């Protein structure tokens, strides 16, 4: 009897310890993390096998670290001083030592070029990744450089034009990101020297107005730098800054950018309330005024043998729901409201799919479908999109495997009819999701699993 009593006590204590370790956590609210003029660090987690650092992904507006787990903060220092990586452990709902939330200097994102990785139509593009370099010691205290990308870009170096960019929109952060402070700064890294030197002139208001007047286009509109990976999708100031690369933009008419396109970005962001989304955004085709192909280099009067920075006639965005593997693409004409060039829908646009579009919960977006004043917005399946752009999309080296609505329903029915062991396996992975250091390994495993299936 005494043995049973002691065993019961041990089980009870173990349960309390387990309950506390699972439910207790340290949290930092992202939205009010820093005040005006302050700079936040990069917040990181670390896996042990393999030893690697990852961005700590905020959920529902909070950075969350389980009891007993670590959170790292990385800061660049003032000139001449090495960067600092600090570790804080979550103990009884508090960080020990207290987590560093302010850096003395802004972070510096970089663009990394992969010449051997082809992409885009006719494989004419090359892969760039935009992100941050982390200098950190390994287990033997040797300093090594980790590169952590936030945006993958497929860019045509010959025309200095971007096919598409890709990023992840993380679940639950809509409306809960950090406030932005400071002015925009566009980075021309990745362009050749001549283009990098001139790209700011291409987007100059005075130059654009003179160009439009010269070609008899009567408009007060202008071509703006249209984010592909939008800064509004990013939870941190540092992540927002990493979107301000010319590699991550295509020329968009300003009125279009602030109306029809803004509605699309809002709707896609709204989908991330339900699940993580892998988002691809790109331009397609050649924008023309009359018979003239429009490139941004033309606007400064530069007519080189090779024109630079193509103005696309169509803009598209596709999101891949990581949980359901459902995809939906939006395609819209890069529309200039001051021109009568677009009285008809472009024949290359993918056809509407009422079954895919009917569930849109944004009335503004619904009103834009097939509306001449909103660029003839259409939404379609991944298969129809690839017919238009003429190339496949990849994530982490694997082809994107999208399901239609019908295939999702069939998949759900198959899961319900599957043996209990399948359900138990799914439960095991879901349970491991709550355990700190396993969280990132689990997320990466699950993402790869779903994409490669």
From TrEMBL:
GO terms for cellular component: mitochondrial inner membrane; nucleus. Residues 1-24 form the signal peptide. It holds the Pfam family Endonuclease_NS. One of its GO terms (biological process) is apoptotic DNA fragmentation. Residues 147-385 form the DNA/RNA non-specific endonuclease/pyrophosphatase/phosphodiesterase domain. It comes from the Eukaryota. Belongs to the DNA/RNA non-specific endonuclease family. The keyword Metal-binding applies. Mg(2+) binds at residue 257. The active site is at residue 227. Residues 164-348 form the ENPP1-3/EXOG-like endonuclease/phosphodiesterase domain. Keywords: Endonuclease, Hydrolase, Metal-binding, Nuclease, Signal. One of its GO terms (molecular function) is metal ion binding. This is DNA/RNA non-specific endonuclease domain-containing protein. SMART domains: Endonuclease_NS, NUC.
């Amino acid at each position: 009897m005494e043995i049973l009593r002691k065993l019961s006590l041990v089980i009870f204590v173990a349960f309390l310890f387990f309950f506390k370790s699972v439910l207790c956590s340290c949290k930092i609210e992202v939205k009010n993390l820093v005040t005006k003029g302050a700079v936040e660090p990069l917040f990181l987690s670390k896996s042990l096998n393999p030893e690697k650092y990852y961005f700590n992904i905020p959920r529902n507006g909070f950075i969350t670290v389980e009891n007993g787990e670590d959170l790292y903060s990385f800061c660049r220092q003032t000139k001449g001083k090495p960067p600092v990586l600090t570790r804080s452990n979550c103990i009884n709902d508090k960080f020990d030592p207290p987590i560093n939330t302010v850096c003395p200097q802004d972070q510096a994102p970089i663009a990394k070029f992969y010449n051997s990785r082809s992409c885009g139509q006719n494989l004419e593009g090359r892969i760039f990744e935009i992100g941050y370099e982390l200098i950190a010691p390994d287990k033997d205290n040797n300093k090594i450089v980790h590169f952590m990308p936030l945006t993958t870009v497929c860019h045509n170096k010959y025309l200095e034009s971007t096919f598409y960019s890709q990023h992840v929109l993380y679940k639950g952060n809509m409306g809960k990101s950090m406030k932005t402070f400071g002015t925009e700064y566009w980075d021309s890294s990745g362009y050749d020297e001549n283009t990098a030197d001139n790209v700011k002139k291409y987007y100059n208001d005075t130059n654009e107005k003179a160009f439009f007047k010269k070609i008899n286009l009567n408009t007060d509109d202008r071509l703006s730098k249209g984010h592909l990976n939008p800064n509004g999708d990013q939870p941190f100031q540092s992540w927002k800054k990493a979107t301000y690369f010319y590699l991550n933009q295509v020329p968009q008419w300003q009125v279009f950018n602030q109306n029809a396109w803004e509605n699309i970005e809002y709707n896609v962001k709204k989908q991330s309330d339900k699940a993580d989304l892998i988002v691809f955004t790109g331009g397609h085709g050649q924008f023309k005024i009359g018979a003239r192909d429009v490139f941004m280099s033309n606007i400064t009067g530069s007519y080189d043998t090779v024109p630079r920075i193509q103005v696309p006639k169509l803009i598209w965005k596709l999101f891949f729901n990581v949980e359901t593997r459902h995809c939906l693409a939006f395609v819209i004409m890069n529309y200039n409201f001051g021109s009568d060039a677009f009285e008809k829908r472009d024949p290359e646009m993918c056809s509407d799919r009422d079954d895919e579009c009917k569930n849109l919960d944004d009335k503004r977006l619904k009103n834009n479908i097939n509306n001449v004043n909103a660029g003839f917005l259409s939404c379609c399946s991944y298969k129809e999109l690839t017919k238009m752009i003429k190339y496949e999309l990849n994530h982490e080296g694997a082809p994107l495997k999208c399901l239609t609505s019908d295939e999702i329903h069939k998949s759900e029915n198959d899961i319900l009819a599957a043996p209990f062991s399948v359900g138990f396996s799914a439960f095991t992975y879901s349970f491991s999701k709550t355990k700190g250091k396993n969280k990132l390994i689990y997320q990466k495993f699950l993402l790869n699993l779903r994409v490669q299936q």
